[in-house]
Input
Amino acid sequence: MNESVFRRPVRLAGERTIVRQLTLDDAAALVAIVRAEPEILPKTLHGVDDAEALAHWLTVAVPNGQRFGVSVHLAIADRETDTLIGFLGLFRVDAAHDTCEVGYALRRAERGRGHATEALRLACDWALRDCGLHRIELRTLTDNIASMRVAEKAGFRREGVQRGASEHRDLVMFSRLATDATGADATDGPVRLVGIGVGPGDPELVTAKAVRLLQEADVVLVPVMAPDEPGRAESVVREYTAKAERVVFALNDRGGVTEKRAAAWDGAAARVLEAFERGARTVVFATIGDPNVYSTFTYLAQSVRAGRPDVAVETVPGITAMQDLAARSGTVLAEGAESLALVPLTAGAGGFREALATCDTVVAYKFGSVAPEVTQALKDAGRLDDAVYGARLGLPGEDVGPASAIDGPVPYLSTLIVPARRTSRGGKL
Ligand SMILES: C[S@@+](CC[C@H](N)C(=O)[O-])C[C@H]1O[C@@H](n2cnc3c(N)ncnc32)[C@H](O)[C@@H]1O
Output
């Protein structure tokens, strides 16, 4: 790293925010903060409450980073008025590895206006570009959604959870590297809509690519049935990013293309188009299982393309409910030359009966409302005892067991596997 640049006075200007050296002119604002909001002060100022000590801090201690080891304490100021509205510190600087940690705090009245994101981005761009640092770490409490959102918007990527790291509480570790692509570099090429499969419910069943895109995307949308109801994909997505925005979809509306359904697709497409209008380059839509298997993403993509044909549509595969049930129940889906049929039962058990008669392994989706018909079809085909059933896989209330135990209606999130009849090893090769 270049320590002399790091210690030199700096003034970084964004659209609304300035990040700069603290000066004696900040004394009045600093005193007001000491009185009203001491919790936002840098740690080195905790307990310093008389004017003389504050003046010393501003004129001697702050410009001379040596006093605290190598670190800088900067002012976050409002661009219009240049008044002090918060602090940003780059500390725990390790010149041997070119790493440091960043922390910031804003006055309460100034929060939620984009100052934090802008200040963080300005300071980190400067530290990584001009001061020669390679890695900046940022740690936040696991329930501090606003802070996580700020980190992601400023180009940080989530690495994982540090258990019990701060007063016995868990922290999420984020980092930004000098080599990371930032939003500013990613302005070439078409805007992208990416459908991301996040698996049936277990947050561990998500691909590394899905996690990376969830964190890098400008906007993350998740389908929900009602605005105040947490979505199924949402609970998985929230394990990896704080920026999930809900889009209301008539997810289990029956009866084909209902008016309610069509309006939901259009509304969701409008949200995506709006995000592109606001400058987003990558919008991702998270969907349970795989986005190419009975997913709402297909319809959303069609509607978005109709409104904006230049959008590049991509998908990231996800683990399907049938794969998860196979794993959890120890069932082999297909081997050798066996066929595998996946049948949705929205319109009744007719297609299911046909598949039982003609295919080796048969998987049923969407049979919540016709469970008794399914049981009867299995009995008639003599395959009830082989079949396994799984409801709410990977979610609270998961239920996996033999299909013969199904008694009455089952939840919408239910999957059934009727494995091929296998008599000997390799018999179907
Ligand atoms: C609209 S489809 C979505 C399929 C999903 N895209 C996939 O790749 O598995 C909904 C059906 O998937 C199955 N499903 C999805 N998630 C499930 C879960 N967590 N547990 C059991 N079944 C699930 C159920 O059969 C449900 O009716």
Observations:
- The longest helix spans residues 259-277.
